[in-house]
Design brief:
With about 350 residues, the chain is an alpha/beta fold. Helix content is about 40%, strand content about 25%. The protein has 2 domains: about 200 residues, Thiolase/Chalcone synthase (Peroxisomal Thiolase, Chain A, domain 1, 3-Layer(aba) Sandwich); about 140 residues, Thiolase/Chalcone synthase (Peroxisomal Thiolase, Chain A, domain 1, 3-Layer(aba) Sandwich), CATH 3.40.47.10. β4, α5 and β5 form a beta-alpha-beta unit. α2 runs parallel beside α7. It is globular and about 60 Å long. The two termini are about 15 Å apart. The mean pLDDT is about 95.
Length: about 350
């Protein structure tokens, strides 16, 4: 019998896509119809936002006609709850199959979602559907927005370090289109409509001798006095996105503290990192980070590809980027870093090393 490894490893990842999808070009006529009563200058500006958002396609749990239909907060929330369990189950079963595990092998289940209210949370439904262990540890993660995919990995890693030999699943499922606000003509709502899409992803972590990324370190970074940078205002009509246009600039200003200081703590520099697994928050953030890393001969090509092919799916998105890396043949001892941002305002970071 092989010796159990000392560090938990990401054993597998998988994604699950909702049934409805359209390229941006096919969405624009619906946007034009939605904004038909708005001033022409505003309509042209919104059209440009969609065209230049670097999102070529997105997926949704509902058909586009239903997205642009006036429904109550409760109706859309309940519709997503029904669909989210199926999506989460699909992603989890695919990830388990890749890891050659069964649902009953899991000791910890962490579910991530910020785009709906759900009590009990998705993990409770999955435990019942898949007949998981009756003593499985549950941790639903909410209200952390786009950062929560990495937050889930951090919590799973810490729980596994405290429970050697155990296995954990992190499942993120999000539907920003369920929160689309038909009567909100703010620029924030326009930007969010242009960049967000729906999706689910799962990651399995545990102790294993198979080659793969081991989490070597993780850390959160909190921006002081920036509570209103991103989040939701909850109104009778549902979730209204808060997204300060200064978010990309704030990230740029703090980038040294967020990335370089974290690497220096691990006696590393940017030059030592082979793979940058970044959450694609939006076009401006991607361009800023891509420019800074490009000067050092590094790239975030997979991040840009995910933004283009799926849009920003909140917490699930960074797991989509990670999934692309786990599909590659990556040399042992290569280093990677994961990074995402979320409400609070905060950043989450994970250092990976590919090990046998």
């Amino acid at each position: 019998m092989s010796r159990m490894k000392d560090e938990p490893k990401i054993l597998s990842t998988a994604i699950a896509l909702p049934p409805y999808t359209r390229p941006t070009e096919e969405i624009l006529p619906y946007v034009d119809l939605w904004l038909a009563d708005q001033p022409e200058r505003f309509r042209k500006k919104v059209n440009r936002i969609f065209r230049y958002a670097k999102v070529d396609r997105r997926y949704s749990v509902m058909d586009i006609g239903d997205v642009f239909q006036m429904t109550s907060f409760a109706e859309k929330n309940n519709f997503f709850l029904e669909k989210s369990i199926d999506l989460a189950e699909q992603a989890l079963l695919k990830a388990l199959d890749k890891a050659k595990l069964a649902p009953q092998d899991l000791d910890i289940i962490i579910t991530v979602c910020c785009t709906a209210f759900m009590i009990p949370s998705i993990d409770a439904y999955l435990i019942n559907r898949l007949r998981m262990k009756q003593d499985i540890i549950r941790l639903p993660v909410t209200e952390m927005g786009c950062a929560a995919g990495i937050s889930g990995l951090i919590y799973a890693h810490n729980l596994l370090k405290a429970n050697p030999g155990k296995k954990a699943a992190v499942i993120a499922v999000e539907s920003p289109t369920s929160n689309f606000q038909l009567e909100d003509y703010s620029l924030t709502n326009m930007v969010c409509a242009a960049i967000f899409g729906d999706g689910a992803a799962a990651a399995i972590l545990g102790y294993d001798d198979r080659p793969g990324p081991t989490i070597k370190d993780s850390e959160m970074y909190h921006f002081y006095d920036e509570i209103r940078m991103m989040g939701y205002d909850v109104k009778n009509s549902g979730f209204h996105m808060v997204l300060d246009p200064q978010v990309p600039n704030k990230i740029e200003q703090h980038f040294h503290q967020i990335l370089y200081s974290f690497l220096e703590k691990n006696q590393l520099s940017v030059e030592d990192i082979n793979h940058f697994i970044f959450h694609p928050g939006g076009k401006k953030i991607v361009e800023i980070v891509d420019g800074m890393l490009g000067d050092l001969g590094k790239n975030i090509d997979e991040t840009k590809a995910v933004l283009s092919q799926y849009g920003n799916m909140s917490s699930a998105t960074v797991l989509y980027v990670l999934d692309r890396y786990l599909d590659k043949e990556i040399p042992l001892d290569d280093l990677g870093i994961m990074l995402s941002f979320g409400p609070g305002f905060s950043a989450q970071r994970v250092l990976l090393r590919w090990e046998a």
